[in-house]
Write a structure and sequence with these properties.
Length: 219
């Protein structure tokens, strides 16, 4: 959960930050390859999400980021979820519509439903689902909303229910009344993809040890 007090309830809060850097070369060097300060770098475009895709998993095999436009875009400080060791760790979601980028109208029940729908979209992008959730953390701005939140929350999960913690906090992003985060495991198929058996170690026979030290006359 991100509790940065500078978080402002505006659509401009959603986005990413980019930076560029360049180098200058002396004008009397005709061939850049002859410049000892010149260097080239190859960028693997597969690490970057495709603009045509609504869901992306990127990163190294041990720690992959999940992105989907079916849930509100995250701030530049965190990802929507991270896949690691067969588990999906989701950032907290509030009741923001991915379409309007604004909190949904209604009461705490409506925003609880939207937060869980957002988590469901992120989990589906990671090839998981709410049925694979093993733990939830619920944050309320007022504990008097506990019962109203539970009535909606209970409809999203079947038994066995995920482990859960629910606490009241002083304030939540966008001045909302509920935020939910969760941890889930991958589907069986995806779990096997992330836990492929390592190749068997090749056995290289070692040469026999000489019984005596060779002499020059042996060659």
């Amino acid at each position: 959960m991100d509790r940065d007090s500078s978080f402002a309830p505006s659509t401009s809060s959603y986005g990413t930050a980019t930076s560029t850097a360049g180098t200058s070369a002396s004008s009397d060097i005709q061939d850049p390859s002859q410049d000892p300060t010149h260097s080239t770098m190859s960028i693997d475009s597969s690490h970057y999400p495709s603009q045509a895709s609504s869901a992306t998993v990127r990163g190294n095999p041990m720690r992959q980021a999940v992105e989907t436009d079916k849930a509100p875009p995250p701030l530049p400080f965190f990802e929507q979820a991270i896949i690691c060791q067969g588990m999906v760790y989701c950032s907290g979601q509030v009741g923001v519509s991915p379409v309007t980028k604004q909190l949904v109208d209604g009461g705490v029940g409506d925003r609880t439903a939207q937060a869980l729908n957002n988590l469901s979209a992120v989990l589906e992008a990671a090839n998981s689902s709410l049925s694979n959730v093993v733990e939830c953390n619920v944050y309320l701005s007022d504990m008097t909303n506990f019962a109203a939140m539970n009535r909606v929350y209970d409809t999203f999960f079947e038994r066995p229910k995920p482990c859960r913690t629910c606490v009241a906090v002083k304030e939540l992003p966008l001045k909302t009344d509920v935020e939910i985060k969760c941890i889930a495991h991958l589907s069986i198929e995806e779990h096997h993809k992330h836990h492929e058996e390592p190749p068997e170690e090749l056995h290289v026979p070692q040469p026999a040890v000489a019984s005596r030290i060779p002499f020059v006359g042996d060659f």
